[in-house]
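Provenance

Sequences were taken from public entries as deposited. Structures were produced by running a predictor on each sequence independently, with no templates supplied. The record for Sensor histidine kinase from Chitinophaga tropicalis is shown for reference.
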Amino acid sequence: MSNYAENREVNKPAKGLVSGVSWQEIVAFLSLFVIMSLLYGMPRFIRGDVPPLYLRETAVDCLFMFISCIPPWWLHFRKLAHWPLKKLFWLHLPTSMIYYASWLLLYDIYNPLTGKPVITFTQVLLNAGPNLLFYVQIFSFLHIYHFFREREQQLKKEKELSSLAYNSEINALKAQIQPHFLFNTLNSISASVPPEQETTRELIAKLADTFRYALYVSQHEWVPLYEEAAFINTILELENRRFGKRLQFEIGSLKETGNVIVPSMLLQPLVENAIRHGIAPSLHGGKIEVDFERVDNKLKITVSDTGIGYPGNLPEILSAKGVGLRNARQRLELLFNETLYIERNHPGGMIFYFYIPIQYHVGNNSHNN
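Predicted structure for Sensor histidine kinase:
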């Protein structure tokens, strides 16, 4: 089973030392330690009583505190950053002990190397108060920093979502231009088809269903997964008439996930990409599979094909394949802060998958064609 960290080739983080850590954050982290160390030594600086040995020991102590803070920082702001603030607060009880134990361990290594005595039990007790106070101050500043940083990112997302909603509204207005004329025309064509061509009549009906659903979702941002899956099934049935045996498809079971609410038209660009760039160029065609899987409290949706695949570098695929995939990735990031993962299928083809939080279907959100 795939997990959230499976394939990072196409989902590269911002430039930094490690995933998700920018140079600006590292500099801010170090600057905070330097400033705090200078503040603690300010009385001696004011008196002018600053021997070279004191400066060296202050620098060493600052370095050790910085190193000791890395494990708690990683837990609070990376590994468990999704935890509620209350749980993170209680987590500081054990992580502060980890911080102090790491600080003592570093001095147990450093002192013998520099000819100094090992820290005694009395010194351990005497240093506990100042070190834990320092820990509280450092992580208070870090929590404030991350609060404002997340707030800034949230405001940016809200602005982008507002712009996206405006564009969607314009597109919805365009889609509503004389829709009844379109449906009536299709019905007229269907009625004129001779009875012996029932297959053609069915195709026209399915085509009308796709137009009707597209009009519906232009006014509804969220739909139950079973409706989105039915729409995808209709598209694939129509395409199957065009490609014949060159296109096979399979829609996964919706027994456990059918009533989950999902953004409308989120799967369509992925399926369209699989048809256009995977199946159509292949002489022998291939198979498209759409799978739905519950992973903890998230829904994993996978769209895979066994077509010709993509010969280039995976990070380039989002720019090389048009706006559909980019729009899908943008919606995932803005709505859920999730990523569109891309892998190569074997022996050929591509795999696209993503995770979204599970939100259950509410009766008044349903749509029946």
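The first helix runs from residue 23 to 40.
Confidence is low (pLDDT under 50) at residues 1-19, 362-369.
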